[in-house]
Give the backbone structure.
Amino acid sequence: MTAKILVVDDELPIERLICQQFRKKIRAKELEFVFAHNGVEALDKLQNNPQIDMVLTDINMPEMDGLTLLEKLKEIEPSLKTVVVSAYSDMANIRKAMNHDAFDFLTKPIDFQDLEVTINRTLGYVQELKETQRQFQQVQTRLIQKEKMSALGQLVAGVAHEINNPVGFIAGNLTHAQSYINDILNLLHLYQQHYPNPVSDIQEEIEQIDLDYLVEDLPQLISSMKVGVERINQISVSLRNFSRSDTSSKVLANIHEGIESTLLILRHRLKASAARPAIEVVKDYGDLPQVECYPGPLNQVFMNILANAIDALEEAMLKEKTERSPTIKICTEVLEGDFVEIRIADNGVGMTEDVQKQLFEPMFTTKATNKGTGLGLSISRQIMVEKHKGQLTCSSKLGWGTEFIIKMPIRQIKKV
């Protein structure tokens, strides 16, 4: 990775000398220098080059001197490290600069070996700071997502529990209702056999309510109600399966059940809308054994990937206005070496190489502010790598769609 240094000095020869001194590192793309000739120009360069790693600035310059620049940098980017340069006789200003949080200082005339050591030391500190910030952000992200998924798991499990009670009540009563209705219909048939010619009032009521239709439709009505109850029961089971929180230890689980539970929860998003046709889900499931895993977090990975695929397909339909059939394809298979692979692909808009490089970074998202947090894929990769000793990778081409590949061991290796 190239380190970028902003050099601020009104002496023009300094630019040539620095480029000459560090030409090998510049050619190897280890270092990149951006030059400005005063504080005002430096602030402008900083605005156009947000990835500056450190600043090397003279103190005595026209328009805006180094001390003023140092104050401005503290306001704009407090974490940016600055090394000040001035004549040895100007030690008072150097002291002021150090008191205003300059990272280090050099005296003129510049000793370029000393400059290289100072740059290396400063960049090393900056790299350590970035790594610490990255680790802190990862921990923070995990805590946020853990709390979020814990709340979601409790909500989903609670909803499933609340569904179970009324569904059980309805299912139990439907069985009795069907028995009662059968008894009543049998009794009605006996009446019709023994009293085929009812009085006029009863005959008029029979015609009014269309008794023949009711007798034929009532059993079918009860049967359709049973189907509805079974459907609700399936949803409840899927909710409980999705929200499983076996985080204390891994368990053997059916990967396909986890995928199916996730698809059921996302079913409303797969249906046709005014903006697009229904999203077709094509399944090519292999013969997978039960996999040792954390089912709850693994289902979370499926949820993140499938939700992103739906977003991509909706974006494709909105942008392109094409007649393409939006499709998600899910393939599973056993690989050599006791691994399973799950591939989830969409035929949406795809991604550029630059987007793919940043895809798993925390807080990175290409979605609108109210649609994406940038946490989903970062957390998904952590779940696969850290919890399951597996992999989560992505392959995409702009205009051709995206495929996520999950690879994980069937059994976890026990530590001796």
